[in-house]
Amino acid sequence: TEIKIELIHSRLVEKTRIERENSLSSAHIVVATQVAESGLDMENVQLLISEEAPPDVLIQRLGRCARREYETGTAYIIKARSDTPYPPILLERVEDLHSRKKAFEEALFMLDKARDLIDSRYDKWEPKVSKKLEDDLENLVKYIEGQLGLVRVPKHQYVRPNLYITLALLEKEVKPNDHIKTEELIEKTFNVEWRGKEARNYAFLKRLEDKRVLELEWDPEESMYLVRSVDRIHPLSIYVLDPDYYEKYKDGYELGLVKLGETD
User: Fold this and answer.
1) What tens digit of pLDDT does each residue of 17-26 get?
2) What's the pTM value of the predicted model, to 2 decimals?
3) Which residue spans of the chain are classified as CATH 3.40.50?
4) Which fold has domain 5-125?
5) Is residue 127 predicted with pLDDT exceeding 70?
6) Are 202 and 184 in contact (CB under 8 A)?
7) Mean pLDDT of 96-111
8) How far apart are CA 80 and CA 89, in angstroms?
9) Contact present, 11 and 189 (Cβ < 8 Å)
C-alpha cells in the first residue's frame, strides 16, 4: 500500500491549501506547521511528533491525539532546533514540564487543570510581559493617532506592528504596465509576514534580470490590477511571486514558498 503524505503550511496558494485541508483524513502522514494546531478538521492522530513549544501550544497540538472516547494516541516532544517562532523566554519554561508529567496529562483532559498549568508557566515573568504589552499598546495607539483616516499604507511607512504582504502566483509571465483581472488572482494568493527592513532581502519577489519587484496596484479606470515595477517593498500590498521560489516536488506536488530571503 502506498503511503500518502501531505504537507500543509501557510505559504501555499489558497487553492492548494484548501485541497490539502480537505484530503487530510485520507493521509497516512501529515507534515504541518502551526496551522495544524486549530481550525483543521482532522481525525484522531495516532502518533504526533512535535518540537518543544509553550504549554498552551503543546496542549492544542496534543489534543489532536485521542480526541474521542476510547481512542488512543502517542506523542513525542523533541528538543527544538531554534526558538523560532516563539520568544526564547517561552521555551525556557518548558524544560520542567517533564518533571510534572502527571499535571501535564491532566491538563490534556480537564480545562481547569489546563488553565492552572498554563498560569503556572507564565506567572514568574508576568511583570516583564505586562511591560512589553504596555509598550506595544502605547506604540500602537501612537500609530493609529498618526494614521487615522488613511485607507492605504503611505509609501514612506516601513515599520508597523503585525503587518504582511500578499503574494500572487500567476500562471503567465507579466511585465510592467500589464493588467491583471481579479479572477486571475482568485485562490492564487497567500500572505507572508512583513519583516520590516529585512524585506529588502526577499529574493522571491525579485526578477533575476534586474532585481526589481513587480507590484499589483488597483486601476479603478480599468477595473483591473496594474503591474508596476518598483524598487522597494511595502506592507499591505500585492506582489508577483517569482515562480522559481514556489517549489514543487515530483509530479508537480507543491511544496510552496520555503525560503523567505537570500539568507534564509
Assistant:
1) 999 988 888 8
2) 0.73
3) 5-125
4) Rossmann fold (3.40.50)
5) no
6) no
7) 65
8) 14
9) no
